[in-house]
Design goal:
alpha+beta, TATA-Binding Protein, 5-stranded antiparallel sheet, 4 helices, about 30% strand
Length: about 110
């Protein structure tokens, strides 16, 4: 019975953590790169897809958003936006466990 209640609580909390509610806050990682948004996205997207195959990329104003769906928590979101000398990279993570370490590493490796 305790396992059922605990599982139910996790799923209820996960339902409250949507990417839209995650992105407006402060990013967990914010970096600058000399690469253009498209060039940087072409580096990060395959790495994220190796870790989480259902990772997607969409165009946003002045760049791209890469989203890796979360299993228990909300999605991992990476915004890549054109800046003066390249791109600003903003990573929004809800929980620092599971595959998120590999995703964060690829964000740094592609800089």
């Amino acid at each position: 019975m305790r396992i059922l209640i605990g599982t139910l609580a996790v799923f209820m909390l996960a339902g409250c953590s949507l990417p839209a509610s995650l992105v407006p806050g402060e990013p967990n990682v914010s970096k600058l790169t000399a690469k253009a948004p498209k060039e940087y996205a072409l580096c990060v997207l395959p790495a994220w897809q190796r870790e989480i195959p259902k990772t997607t990329q969409v165009s946003i104003t002045n760049g791209y958003r890469i989203t890796a769906p979360g299993i228990v928590t909300s999605d991992e979101v990476l915004d890549i936006v054109k800046s003066k000398n390249g791109s600003r990279v903003s990573l929004y993570q809800r929980a620092p466990w599971a595959k998120t370490g590999a995703l964060k590493k690829s964000v740094n490796d592609c800089l």
